[in-house]
Structures are given as C-alpha cells and as structure tokens.
Write a structure and sequence with these properties.
There is one protein chain. By secondary structure, this protein is an alpha/beta fold. Strands 12, 13, 14, 15, 16, 17, 27, 28, 29, 30, 31 and 32 form a twelve-stranded mixed β-sheet that branches. Strands 1-11-8-7-5-6 form a six-stranded parallel β-sheet. It has a three-stranded parallel β-sheet with strand order 3-2-4, with helices on both faces. Helix 7 links the parallel strand 5 and strand 6. It starts with 7 loop residues before the first strand and ends with a strand.
Length: 938
C-alpha cells in the first residue's frame, strides 16, 4: 500500500487471487452436486505471435488453478475466415465447452474480419463479452449476459477502493469497443455521471481534472500526468505499453497510459501497471467461464421445460383424421427441440417438421436422473384395434399441455404394408395424433428402407457365397477371399475375427496350412437349413414362398425360400434393442443366417458383412423427433414386428427421452398388441436389455372389445358394427370383463401399478363405463379412468394423466421379471403360457423339440423368449375369446434370433408376410397434382 502522501495501490494481483480462490471453491461445490461437472474454456489462436502466446499461457494457468479445463486450439497463419468460422461452429455446438475466446489480433496471411469472428462466437459462450448481443445488453442496462472482462475488472477495482460510484463524476478517456465504451456504460448503470473523452475532446486535461473516478484506456504511454488528476480521485489505468529502458535486461519496460509516479502523488487510489487491471481481466474471464458452466449445470439439473403448447380448435362432429391433421400448423421442429432441452449439435433436421436426434445426447445428459417409465399396453383387441396409439398420444398431450409436466411419447415407426393394406395410418386419431400424419406414415426418415437394404444385402451375400463355394475349390476360394494386392495378401478386420473364432491364431495369410485355408474359406452352408430371408416393406402374399436361382447364370443352384415384411427382419428387432452403435454392431455380427452341414451356426460375421451392414444402418440408430396436434414431443423409432419380435419402440428413444424429461418427467412407450404379448415382451426382453425399471402400466380397453369377449358377434374391419356394439348391453359387457381382469392381473404379476384407460366411443353409455371402472378397481387396478382424447384431445385425458402421476408416486422397487434367463427354453415357454395366457400346459411338436435341443446344445438356451402367437386371443386360437383357462398351448416350431437375443416359439400359423385384401386401402390413395396434397391416406 502507499504512504501517507501517495495514493493507495489497488492491487489487481491481490484482488484477482481472491476472486480465483472463490471460483475454485465454486467449481468444487458444483462438482459435488453434479458428477462429471467441469467448466470448459476454448482458446482459439490464429498464428503464433509471442505476445499472444504469453497471454494464452497466463489464461491457461489461471484456468487450471481454478479447475477449468482449458483447451488451446492453435491454427496456422494460412487459416481463412471460413476455416476459422468452421472451427468456432463446432465449439459453439460442443456442450463440454462453456466459454470461447478468440485471441486477438488474428495473425493470418488472409484477410479476416475480427468483428465478424467475435460475433460468430455464440453469445452464450462469449466469455470475453465482445459479441454485439452482449455489448447491446450492457448498453441498455441488462447486465445478465457476459460483461466484458477488462471493464468488469475495472468496476471490481473501483469497488475495492470503497469510493461509491453512485453520484460520482466519472471520466473515461478512450472510447474503444473493448474498454472505453463498455466501462462508460457500466459506470452509468452503477449510477455515476459519466463523461467520455477521446482524441477529439477539447481541453482533455481540464475534463480529466473533474473526475472523482478516472478510467484511462487511450493507448498512449504515460499520457495522463499528475496535474490532470483531481486530488483524492480513483485512477484506473487500463493501458499497457512497452517503452525503452536501458536499465532492464530486455531494454524495455511496461508502463500504463498514466504517468504512475506523478499520478500516485495526487490520486487517492491508483492501479499499477503491471499488476493492476491486467490480472483482473484474466480473473473476470475465468469468472465468466465458471458462470457459464454453472448456468449449463443448472439447466441440466432443472427439469422445467420452456414448453409452449399448440392450441386445438375442437369441432363437432369430429372431422376426419386427415382434416384435423391439416388444420394444425406444426411448430418448427427446431423450436420444439429447444423447448425440450436439446442443443443444435444433437439435432439433424429433415425439413422443418421432423429431425433425427443424436446419441451424443445421452453422453451430455449421463448424470441426469431418469424420468418415470410408463408402458401403454392393451386388452385382447378386436380387428379394429382399441386405440393404444391414440391413448398414448392423448396422454402425452394431457401431461405436457394441460398438466405442465415434462413428457415424451415413444412410438414405433409404422410399416407401409398396413398403410396401403388394411389398417391405414398408425399416427393415432381424432384430436390425439402425430402430425404431419403423411410424414409419419410414409417413409419418415428412411429407417425402414435402410433396414430393408441391409437385410437384403446380407441375403445376397449369403446366396452368392453359397454359389461360389459350390463352383470353386478351397484354394480358389481362399485366393479370391484374400487376394494379393501389389504382391501382398492381408486379412481384413472381419476376416481376422473369423480366424479367431476358428481358433487360428495367425495374421499372415501365407502362413496358413492347406487345412486352415479350407477351414477359413469354406462355410459349407446347408442349402436346406438357410433361415435368412429377404424382405420388402409392402404386403405381398405371392412372396410367401419363392424359388431363387432360377436364372441360367446360377447353374442350377436353386432353392426354395421366402420374403418377409421388412419390419419382421431381425435387423429391425436389433435396431429396437441396441443400446449403442457398438452394441448394435455386436448384435448384427451374431445373427445366425444359416447352419452348415454339420449343424453349426453361420453368422453374419462369418460371411463378412457386419461392417457393410453398419454403414447402411449408421443413421437408423437415431430416433426421429415429431410432435402431436398440441405440440407435445414424440420420438418415433424402430418398428419390430410384434408377432415374432418384441413389438416395442426402441431402447435408445426411451433412454434419450428419460434423460430429457428429468427425474420428475414421464416417458410413455408403447407395446404391441395386448398385455399377454407386447407388455410381457416389454418387461422380459426390453427392460431386461435396457436395465430400466418400469414405473406403471396404462392398460387400454374399450366397451366394444369387452362385449366381443362376452360373446358378441364378430367384429370385422370394413363392415358395420352390429347393434350389440351400438346400443347399451350391460349383460354382454359383464360377460366380457374376465378378459380385462386377466390383463390387469398380468401387469400386477410384474409388480407394477396398472392404470386402466377406458377409451370411450360414441355409442358407449355412462352405465357401461361405470361397470368397467368398478370391475377394474375391484380386480387390482390402481385406477380406472374414462378417456375422451379422440374427441377432445389432451383435455380428454387429464384424468388419466392425474392417475398416472399418482401411480408413479408409489415405490418403484417391486418390479420383477416373469422368468430367469438361466431356466430352460421349455420352462420359460411354459411359465409364459401359464402365467400370461392362462394355459394349463404346453405341448411341443417333434420339430419344436428338435430345435430346442439344437439351440440348447449351441448355447442359446439362456436367451429370452419372444412368443409368436395370435394377438386376437389369449390362446393360440384366434377364434377363442374371453379369458379361457386350462387349455393346452401348442408350440409347433422354434426360431432363433441370436442377434436380437431371443428364441421365438411359434404357436400356430404366424405369417411374416401379410397379404392385401380384395379391396386394400390403396384404392383410396392419390396425389392431387395441383396442390401436391396426398388424398385418401386416412
């Protein structure tokens, strides 16, 4: 400190240390609150000026001392403006980077506009405070953004003096963008009366002498003399200049814009150079970085979305689905993504109405607590369906738009087979649907097409390999599989995996023995035991059995095979169950496509196709974001065939959703068919794979379906409903209640609360609804609620939303799987049949027994079970309704889906290729060539 006849020194070195110590403590506190928390600072430098290097080293040291991860991105002098902007764009989108500074001046041989560059840095990461938006905030008195570092450091030094700014006369000499102009604004908002002086100011010394607080940043060494200063004034010297000094080893010394020796004899307080404003500039930079990181951390921990619902204009009578869909203008999908907490780098736009969501979202949110996990299932449906998808959409609308809860619904992507066949669209219906429904039902983002291409590439490679093995010797095969390129043979990565599988520990192709070459090159596939089929995403009954290889070029090597619909491909099931790209790759590699003549499995990896499949499928693993009529978020992803696969939307979509909604939010995901099939597979296959604990079941039922189970006449798609379904019939309804009761008990068996959603239809009566509600409550349901979301949108499902919220408040530690994986295949099948269907026992055909024996011998007996049976009955006979007990379930075959991770018992005839009816939906579908609108799709 100074003596009695000199001004007191305002040490920026001391004050900055205090600030850095506090920042270090703040970082430690937040690291304890949020595991993985670490402030990130990116310092971008163009060229290699030594003065810049000195400043950067100083900033990195300060950052490291505090606990900030500082990354120095040094670019060459040849860097162009576009290249620099490209680097900054990546930093803007990187969630681990909380602050970005571009070291000035830019030392490039190319012309770079520094103003363009400072404004290209995201204002949310502009810790220098130089972005026009942050400068503008300061100018209007909004001090919530980043304050410029040097001016903010000056303010802290003035506060250190104890001299009040309010009411004082402050003079600023210099009007630069970096110092003079912003410090004058900050002084003004601290209630000082401010005069800004510059090179054109007349009587500059006289103006300076009026100052109670004098801030100098003019860039001229020692310009301000002692007689310019009002006695007792606070003098803040922002200058740093190098002047000759023979007494210094370097021949230079640093001085400010104020003649320090003269000024300190007059001033009350003064900053030294160096050791004054300089250290404070660095401290304020660190302060801004920590503030930015804490803001990001609070956003992660906060579960409150800035969700803005879309308003519905509900009409009576309810218009057609397509008319309702087109009457609502969707939000721009980028806006919706921002509302639910996604960042730009995680969103790949497909136009303005749908977008792919990156898996990196899971990494960014890995420390966020998962939300509540609800599965929407149903009772045994009529051929018309009972509205699971509509209920799913209505419930997410109710939660988001009417109960202000974070909620995301996850749906399967619909196949085009049903769209052009019998069912039509799968986007929900009425005022509870996904929009735009045309995009939802046609192509989406191409995932099904990618699965189709990958599946058929595998089939083509398998048949081609069989053909070449039938026409070549072992040596010829080996020479073609491992050709010499410029005289050198090399195994590819996937070939090395095959060698390891065969127990051949060699990596040099020329070192293999003749026996080893043959073992490696010849798969010896049994043409009568090929289980992989081609697929196409349309209903085509004539592809259920075909002959391939009929062309003369195939030299008579024909075989009988078939096509399945694309969503029945095991690749689709893998897409739905994969938890990461690597997991997906491993599952694809393990797919069994055939057996060799010795009965050993032949995998996709064996025929060398795994890598190629991944290339085709790399984008499919990202779910697609869409929205409902009320603007609520929907993840659409994967569409595994519920008849033979597990029939649920993807684990990836659910996992991302649970992170985005946060611990108090809700993820609603659908399961195919009734609780006996879709819900059981959701629990025993999907939840087992994802290791996520379900919180509640929403069980959808209708009066119509229960009347059918009570003995009502058949319900047929395309035919008018009989009077039993359009008039009140309590007796018939009561006889059908056992089906509902069975499905409730199925959910309760897993230890999860079951909320029954009574999906109301126009012909229902209040007496019928009340009968269903009382029966549900009396038989184990947590609650039962009548829903009118089809006609009223989310407002018609608020009661259901309230029941789900309450159900999720119960302890969630009671969930249990139905069976253990280490049980035998037969025991697992029997457990499902008895517990879920009500069967008295299971009968296995000789073919099924043989398959079970083979799969057990090969080590596949520890896989999960994906039962394939009719969805129209709890039994294996679609004609049997109600809730029969004691029947025998026949298993006539057992299939293997090793990559997906389950064995598929076939109960009855289950077709993997639907056919078109006499009058399919495609008769009504057309394109208006004048407006471009699709007509007749729904």
């Amino acid at each position: 400190m100074g003596t009695s006849n000199t001004g007191k020194v305002l040490s920026g070195t001391e004050l900055s240390k205090q600030i850095r110590d506090q920042l270090k403590e703040d970082v430690s506190v937040w690291k304890a609150k949020l595991p993985g928390f670490s402030p990130g600072l990116a310092i971008v430098q163009v060229g290699g000026r030594e003065d810049s290097n000195v400043y950067i080293r100083m900033k990195i040291k300060a950052a490291n001392d505090i606990g900030i991860e500082a990354h120095h991105l040094k670019l060459p002098r040849t860097t162009t403006q576009q290249e620099l902007m490209s680097k900054l764009r990546k930093l803007n989108d990187d969630p681990k980077v909380h602050g970005i500074i571009v070291q000035m001046p830019l030392d490039s041989i190319n012309k770079i506009d520094s103003h363009v560059i400072t404004d290209f840095v995201s204002p949310d990461k502009d810790v220098d405070g130089l972005h026009t938006m942050n400068e503008g905030r300061v100018a209007i008195g909004d001090l919530t953004g980043f304050l410029p570092c040097t001016p903010n450091g000056c303010i802290e030094l003035i506060k250190m003096s104890g001299v009040p700014m309010a009411g004082s006369n402050a003079v600023v000499i210099g009007r630069s963008k970096i110092v003079g102009t912003p410090i004058s604004e900050l002084l003004k908002w601290n209630d000082a009366t401010v005069t800004v002086c510059h090179s054109k100011t007349k009587n500059l010394a006289a103006e300076a002498r009026k100052a109670d607080i004098l801030v100098v940043g003019i860039g001229r060494p020692q310009m301000v003399k002692g007689d310019w200063i009002k006695p007792g004034a606070v003098v803040i010297d922002c200058g740093i200049n190098s002047i000759p000094d023979p007494s210094k080893a370097s021949g230079q010394r640093l001085v400010g814009d104020v003649d320090y020796e003269e000024a300190r004899k007059v001033a009350g307080y003064i900053t030294p150079v160096p050791g004054g404003v300089g250290p404070m500039t660095v401290a304020m930079l660190m302060n801004n970085t920590v503030l930015s990181s804490i803001k990001a951390a609070k956003k992660l921990l906060s579960s409150n979305w800035d969700f803005q619902p879309l308003q519905l204009n509900v009409l009576r009578p309810v218009p057609s689905d397509i008319d309702i869909s087109r009457s609502q203008e969707p939000k721009n999908i980028l806006r919706l993504s921002e509302e639910i907490g996604l960042i730009n780098d995680e969103v790949t736009l497909y136009g303005t109405k749908k977008a792919k969501i990156a898996l990196s979202t899971l990494q960014r949110l890995e420390n966020v607590t998962d939300g509540k996990y609800i599965v929407v299932a149903g009772i045994t449906p009529t051929p018309l369906g009972e509205g699971k998808s509509t209920t799913l959409v209505g419930l997410v609308q109710a939660l988001c738009a009417h109960r202000q809860r974070n909620a995301i619904a996850c749906m399967r992507q619909p196949s085009q087979g049903p769209t052009f066949g019998v069912k039509g669209g799968a986007a929900g219906g009425g005022y509870a649907q996904v929009i735009p429904m045309e995009d939802f039902n046609l192509h989406m983002t191409g995932d099904i097409h990618a699965v189709t291409a990958a599946n058929n590439l595998l089939a083509a490679q398998l048949d081609t390999r069989m053909f070449h093995e039938s026409t070549q010797t072992n040596q010829q095969l080996f020479d073609r599989l491992v050709p010499k390129i410029k005289g050198v043979r090399r195994f590819s990565t996937i070939q090395l995996r095959r060698l390891a599988k065969l127990g051949i520990g060699k990596t040099d192709p020329d070192s293999l023995t003749t026996e080893e070459m043959g073992k490696f090159a010849r798969l010896d596939v049994d043409p009568n035991n090929v289980i992989w089929t081609r697929v196409v995403d349309v209903n085509d009954r004539y592809l259920r059995k075909i002959i391939v290889g009929a062309s003369p070029t195939e030299k008579g090597f024909t075989r009988e095979t078939s096509y399945s619909i694309s969503v029945a491909s095991e690749i689709m099931a893998i897409l739905a169950l994969a938890v990461s790209l690597e997991d997906m790759k491993q599952r694809l590699a393990q797919m069994v496509v055939a057996f060799d003549r010795s009965g050993n499995p032949v995998t996709a990896d064996d025929i060398g196709v795994t890598g190629a499949l991944m290339v085709l499928l790399k984008d499919t693993i990202e779910p697609t974001l869409m929205q409902t009529l009320e603007g609520s978020p929907i993840f659409v992803h994967a569409g595994p065939f519920a008849n033979i696969a597990h029939g649920c939307s993807s684990i990836i979509a659910d996992n991302i959703g649970m992170k985005l909604v946060g611990k108090d939010g809700f993820v609603l995901t659908e399961a195919g068919f009734g609780s006996d099939i879709g819900m059981e597979k959701f629990f025993d296959i999907k939840c087992r794979t994802s290791q996520k604990t379900p919180t509640a079941v929403v069980l959808v039922c209708t009066v119509r379906a229960l009347k059918m189970h009570g003995g009502g006449p058949p319900v047929t798609a395309g035919s008018p409903l009989k009077k039993e379904y359009t008039e009140e019939n309590i007796e018939l309804l009561e006889k059908g209640l056992p089906n509902l009761i069975k499905h409730i008990s199925n959910g309760v068996k897993f230890g999860v609360p079951v909320v029954v959603a009574i999906n109301a239809h126009g012909a229902d009566t209040s007496a019928e609804h009340e009968l269903v509600r009382k029966a549900a409550l009396a038989n184990g349901a947590f609650d039962a609620v009548v829903c009118t979301h089809w006609s009223d949108g989310g407002a018609g499902a608020t009661g259901l939303a309230d029941a789900v919220i309450k159900a999720c408040e119960t302890p969630d530690d009671k969930f249990k799987f139905l069976y253990e994986l280490n049980s035998s295949i037969e025991d697992k099948i029997t457990k499902i049949a008895k517990e879920m269907y009500g069967a008295g026992g299971v009968e296995f055909t000789q073919q099924a027994k043989g398959k079970i024996e083979l799969y057990s011998k090969l080590g596949y007996d520890n896989l999960a079970i994906s039962m394939a049976k009719t969805s129209n009955s709890l039994t294996g006979d679609p004609a049997i309704k109600g809730a029969p007990t004691g029947f025998t379930l026949l298993v006539n075959d057992v299939l293997l889906s090793a990559g997906a991770g389950f064995v598929v018992p076939m109960c009855g005839e289950i077709s993997k290729m639907p056919g078109l009816p006499t009058r399919p939906c495609l008769y009504d579908i057309d394109l208006n060539t004048e407006t471009g609108e699709i007509q007749g799709l729904f």
